[in-house]
Amino acid sequence: MSQIKGMMMKKSRTTAIILAAGQGKRMNSTVQKQYLLINSKPVLYYSLKAFEESIIDDIVLVTGKTEIDYCQKEIVEKYGIHKVRIVTSGGKERYHSVACGLAAIDWDCDYVFIHDGARPFVDGSIIERAFLNVQKTSACVVGMPVKDTIKLADKNGFVESTPDRSLVWQIQTPQVFKKELITKAYEKMLSEEASLNAADISITDDAMVVEYFMNIPIKLVEGSYKNIKITTPEDLKTAEIFMDA
User: Fold this and answer.
1) Confidence class of residue 24 from pLDDT cuts 50, 70 and 90?
2) The pTM is what?
3) Nearest-CA neighbor of 143 among 125, 126, 166?
4) Rounded CA gap, 20 and 90, in Å?
5) Residue 23 Cα distances to 44, 63, 200, angstroms
6) What is the CA radius of gyration of the chain?
7) Which residues contact 168 (CB under 8 A, 6 or more apart)?
8) 86: burial class by Cβ within 10 Å (0-12, 13-18, 19+)?
9) pLDDT tens digits for range 156-190
10) Domains of the chain, each with CATH number or no CATH
11) Distance of CA 95 to the CA centre of its chain
């Protein structure tokens, strides 16, 4: 009886994959966006710190091959991010980097959080909301309802339709899944990568992989309008304002 009770009370183990292998071409900077400074600390530090101080058990940091030592010494060790179990190299595209992160998890793990290292304003509340929802649904993504009217365009740049704004969300990260589910989804996607490319189908986020290959509904979870991704110089200025506030 005590053994059964212990199994029932087993805590779900969580791993966060933090992606920091992007080149940041739209930033117009020689420094990759995740290493730019906000209040004297790199953008990547803030994401790592949020997960370090959260309910997450382990962190996989995915970066460029030439930045592994830098991230290990100048960010992970320098700022005491103790939950990082491995710093590994990513791939050509974002989804390749996610696959590398998943492959690096060789320990017991029930749920995987996938987060862009260039989103410095994720916080413990967002992480906890996502965790509560993924335990009920197996797959959820953080986002916020859009504030503006959205137009869908045709290939010639003309308006094709106007979706109901109340049903349109701007998707953020983290995106959270049962480990088994996201692993199988990525295995299927990589096995069919050539056919996807031939059909000009772009994989833009992890939820799309699950939607396309697993036919699993994705739960939308409220994030924050502050949970922006640092992509352009204007984003960096906005982040500095948020930090000062």
Assistant:
1) low
2) 0.92
3) 126
4) 8
5) 13, 10, 22
6) 19
7) 145, 146, 150
8) middle
9) 999 999 999 999 999 999 999 999 999 999 999 99
10) 11-142+173-244 (3.90.550.10)
11) 11
